[in-house]
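Suppose you are handed only two things: the residues of a chain and a line of SMILES describing S-adenosylmethionine. What would the bound structure be? This form records exactly that question and the answer produced for it, so the two can be stored side by side and reused later without any lookup.

QUESTION INPUTS
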Amino acid sequence: MATVLPLPRSVAGSGPAGRIVLAVGAWATAAVLACRGTGGGAPATAETAAPAPAADDAASEPGATVEAAAHATDSGLADATGPSPDPQEARWTALRDRMVETQLLARDIADPDVLRAMRSVPRHLMVPEEVREHSYDDGPLPIGWDQTISQPYIVAIMTQLAEVAPGERVLEIGTGSGYQAAVLAELGAAVYTIEIVGALAERAQRDLEALGYGGRVQFRTGDGYRGWPEHAPFDAVLVTAAPPEIPQPLLDQLAPGGRLVAPVGDDLQVLVVVERDAGGTLSRREIAPVQFVPMTGEAQHPSPAP
Ligand SMILES: C[S@@+](CC[C@H](N)C(=O)[O-])C[C@H]1O[C@@H](n2cnc3c(N)ncnc32)[C@H](O)[C@@H]1O
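ANSWER OUTPUT
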């Protein structure tokens, strides 16, 4: 179940001059910084007063989301670009704009590129039909196989902290729905994403390709603990499931000047940013308490490097 966490009133997050400064105090307005799901419905937050959608479980593993949406609403992306805008698509766009205004701008998301990406990616086409109505709510949603698509705010803050520039190479551990990967692709990054649940990986690849992001995202099914050395080094690494400690191979694959953003911990987790400076030295800062699904696989019982 997603959990409301106490949040610090000030956050010392910053990037290179002129890029990102997290507003002091803004975090206090964030109701939930959570990405953990147990197969339950949408979390109840101040902005999400609607009843939770039906729980999903292994018996109701959702199918392809983009195709399902196109059939359910008769409004695929192609329709939205036609001469007469589909009213259903216009409604989703309005909900997305409201999400950006009330959940991101009202907090501390200030990077214009991140805001543009969050306005662009059709999140409702990347979630199972049973929870589609809640796509732009202020919380994580179940996507099947006991996993979640992260709260929009957490996707935005992780993306902002990663400071991704066009053309940069970004490694994501935990493809999930593919939504975070799509946001990174919208920023012009070359995205390498790894997912340990085969069915999720397949569905995300299918959906991202259907949405036109396929050319900018490379997919791999497996344990992301050891990263993707064949494509290293990476300018940014985003870990979207929580390991007890940051896997050393992911730190090793961070380029000079690179940023790694990850939730770290077991029951008590904190969002961490690790930066490697031009000389290779790593520095680490803690951003805020968070709650993510655990990183499974080798992270739970690391073995020495081969
Ligand atoms: C919070 S969800 C990620 C949300 C995703 N980024 C999105 O945009 O929908 C965490 C994901 O990490 C995956 N995961 C957990 N442990 C992993 C591992 N060792 N390697 C790769 N993926 C892992 C889970 O299966 C799950 O899909």
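WHAT STANDS OUT: Strands lie at 34-35, 141-144, 147-149, 169-173, 190-195, 217-221, 234-239, 254-265, 269-276, 282-292. Residues 1-34, 37-62, 67-82 have pLDDT under 50 and may be disordered.
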